[in-house]
Specification:
This protein is mainly alpha-helical and 75 residues long. Helix content is 41%, strand content 5%. The protein has a two-stranded antiparallel sheet.
């Protein structure tokens, strides 16, 4: 597998997304969600400890649709 170079615009959007997550989302997940949905204890097979796990979802399927917050079950 060969990685394709990322355009500067795409890289800037990715960086901005990480910054928004760190500033506005991470604290909420740590304070309210990770006790039951992270680490060794994962209720409903819904793990929030990594981005990949978050996007995969749990026993009820994906809870997040990137770029489509109105269609996402996680609020």
């Amino acid at each position: 597998m060969v990685a394709e170079p990322v355009s500067p615009e795409h890289a800037a959007r990715m960086k901005a997304g990480v910054e928004v997550f760190q500033r506005e989302v991470r604290g909420i997940l740590v304070g309210r969600c990770l006790l039951c949905h992270g680490g060794e204890s994962v209720e409903g097979e819904f793990d929030l400890s990594t981005r990949e796990a978050l996007l995969k979802g749990g026993s009820e399927g994906p809870a997040v649709k990137p770029g489509k917050s109105a269609e996402s079950r996680l609020v």
